[in-house]
Amino acid sequence: MADANDPVVPVIQRLIADHPAAPARLIVGDLWIGPNPKVNNMIRGYREAKYDWVVISDSNVRVAPDYLKRMVAHLDLGVGIMTSLVAGQNAEGIGGNLEATFLNTYYARGMSLAFAVKQPVVLGKSMMFRKSVAARFGGLEVLSRYLAEDYICGEAVRQLGLRTVMATDPVAQHIGQYSFSSFWARHIRWGRIRKMQSPLLFWFEPFLGIFASAIFGALAFQRLFGISPVLFACIHLTLWSVCDLLLMRRLGQKVEVKMPLFWFGRELLGLPMWLHIASGNTVNWRGERLKLQSGGILEANPPALSGATFNGRTQAQSSASLSLGNSDEQPSS
Predict the structure, then answer these.
(1) At how many degrees (to 10) do helices 259-278 and 180-197 cross?
(2) 3-state secondary structure 122-159
């Protein structure tokens, strides 16, 4: 917990008191080891963890009582990291429903496709890995230089020759009341991560949406088979929307009359959002404005003068980035 005044602190303290047999304690206060505020918040707890296997689960994730049992059921000697599909649930407001629709269609499809073609990606909403494995590429400290520490962690594990496995059950992300501006800022951040880490794929994104594919498909089918472009577009849009709505339902999004409206709104926002993403390299996250560099590396902005010591290492040492091309990289000093 970064802030001792966080309203959830007494809740956690009561939970610990109600279960005295569980070896749990609350660690308050973050530690600056790099420009990623999430890693700064996690690092003290990470270092204090007694055992090799570590689970990172975001505060807005809701899991079943047997969550850990179902995660470890997938483990074998060749597995380096576990991750989970995220299902957006309990959405309220325009921003919340758009957020749930985005998670339960665009991201669910993308993540499932990535695993299907043997190019797995890791989402930090819920992931499990071994500290001994992370130490081989420099540990959590090295990930603090990246905005998408989860994705980079997965890539580093892959380069070590270990597998990334997705749990069979998605985890639920509680969305709640969400403003449109919060929804927009979040997906601009995620989009700029994609742009800086996979620039070639990013420039093709507009052609992978429902409307661009309908246009190109209609023109192709008219030329090749003489099918009416209007007929093709109608069939294409219907099949795509039905598949997405079934996926939204499968991931726990409420089946309501408004679902198709938010789905259509999300699709319409795709191009303007992509243009906004393409227009800059900065993101707003956890109250900070961060600048992204090539490869998803964050521009360091330590809270002190240059050359000061943070966490027992100099600013220059803290800014060292991970070389994904070297699978034999040893822990940093």
Answers:
(1) 50
(2) CCCCEEEEEHHHHHHHCHHHHHCCECCHHHHHHHHHHH
Torsion angle (degrees, nearest 10) of CA 244, 181, 146, 122: -20
Cβ-based burial of 157 (10 A; exposed 0-12, middle 13-18, buried ≥19): buried
Question: How many residues make up the chain in this entry?
Answer: 333
pLDDT of 53-84, one tens digit each?
Answer: 999 999 899 988 899 998 888 888 899 999 99
Q: Which two tokens stand for residue 118?
A: 């043997």
Inter-axis angle of helices 180-197 and 93-102, nearest 10: 30
Question: What's the CA gap between 329 and 323, in Å, rounded?
Answer: 8
Residue spans per domain, the chain: 31-318
- If one counts every other C-beta atom within 10 angstroms of the C-beta of residue 255, the result is 8
Please report, for residues 107, 109, 120, 235, 290, the alpha-carbon distance to residue 187 in angstroms, rounded to integers and kept in the order given: 11, 16, 20, 29, 15
C-alpha distance across the termini of the chain, in Å: 26
- The CATH number corresponding to 31-318 among 2.60.40, 3.90.660, 3.90.550, 3.40.50 equals 3.90.550
CA count, 13 A, side-chain hemisphere, 197: 19
Name 87's bridge partners: 172
Of the ranges 30-44, 69-83, 273-287, 289-303, which one carries the lowest mean pLDDT score? 289-303
Predicted TM-score (pTM) above 0.90: no
- Cα distance between residue 164 and residue 123, in whole Å: 11
Q: Which of 239, 309, 248, 228 is nearest to 33 (CA)?
A: 309
Of 147, 118, 122, the C-alpha closest to 285 is 147
Query: In sequence order, what E strands does 29-162 have?
Result: 53-57, 61-62, 79-83, 86-92, 126-130
Task: Name 22's bridge partners.
Answer: none
Asked if residue 33 lies in contact with residue 318, where contact means CB atoms within 8 angstroms, the answer is yes
